[in-house]
Amino acid sequence: MKYVHGYDQRENIRLYDQASTLVELLHFDTFYPAMSQVLEPGCGVGAQTITLARNSPHAHIISVDISESSVAEAKKKIEEAGFTNVSFQQSNIFKLPFKRESFDHIFVCFVLEHLAKPIEALKCLKNLLKFGGTITAIEGDHGSTYFYPDSEAAHKAIQSQVELQKRAGGNANIGRELFPLLDAAGFSSIRVSPRMVYVDSSKPRLVEGFTKNTFTAMIEGVRESSIKAGLIDEKTFDDGIKGLYRTTETDGVFCYTFFKGIARKQ
Ligand SMILES: C[S@@+](CC[C@H](N)C(=O)[O-])C[C@H]1O[C@@H](n2cnc3c(N)ncnc32)[C@H](O)[C@@H]1O
Asked: Is-cis flag, bond preceding 118, omega within 30?
């Protein structure tokens, strides 16, 4: 599998920055009851796992990822933070080694966007869910990005990331599709809520944590590969990155919307 965002250390730092900046927006309504079994597929380096473990201290969380090194890093992070309610396993979302109906809840974040067959993945997860159990899926949508001052080059740089992810089999605009995807996978009682990150200079923590260190860092991360793929020229890309940084100045504004879907197996 070609994973657009890469597994390097810079990307791991970006994932932690993203998670810690967005904890309130994405997790304020995610709590699992005591004794419940929760599966977190595609846990990566554990950026969301920390919040899951903290918010649901008496649930048992099983976090898995296809990347052995990410699982090892996630395990280290959780142990260092002192949580004992998470266990880890290396595994592919399409071949998870668990019995049918063994989980009360599933939490999957920023993973479907990387899969060529997100509906198949959701069906695999649904098999593992008990009847009455819930799935929570969170995804971004790059088409929801707008900012002031506007910059054509910035839109082109973002679009080169969207196209690169598409060529790798993923979908950077998947957030808007959460409802139809969950529906196609056979889930019921689907509720999707948009979670907009609105950033201006009155919110310096978001300017740093989101506009610069999460979103712009992600686009900057595809510079070489998108130029090499002929999707954009160097100058336009670099002007685009400048355009994104320009939105972090005193008069700048940046907006992006995540989508959080919660659905039930009935
Ligand atoms: C953008 S990261 C998200 C990590 C974490 N959920 C978070 O929100 O920070 C996507 C993760 O999905 C994992 N992944 C991709 N395809 C997978 C598959 N088929 N099975 C399991 N994990 C997969 C990648 O290894 C990566 O760690």
From this structure: no
Task: Match 């793929």 to its residue by tokens.
Answer: 229
CB contact at 8 A, 158 and 149? no
Q: Name the β-bridge partners of 86.
A: 61
Binding-site residues, ligand 1, Cβ < 6 A: 1, 3, 5, 15, 19, 41-44, 47-48, 65-67, 70, 92-94, 109-111, 114
Return the closest-CA partner of residue 18 out of 201, 216, 200, 213. Answer: 213
Once rounded to an integer, what is the mean pLDDT over residues 196-205?
95
Tokens of 68: 């052995």
Provide the residue type at 201 as one letter. Answer: S
Whole-structure pTM over 0.85, yes or no?
yes
Tokens of 262: 């919660």
HEC secondary structure over 202-261: CCHHHHHHHHHHHHHHHHHCCHHHHHHCCCCCHHHHHHHHHHHHHCCCCCCEEEEEEEEE
Q: Note whether 130 and 104 are within 8 A (CB).
A: yes
Tens of pLDDT, residues 138-196: 999 999 999 999 999 999 999 999 999 999 999 999 999 999 999 999 999 999 999 99
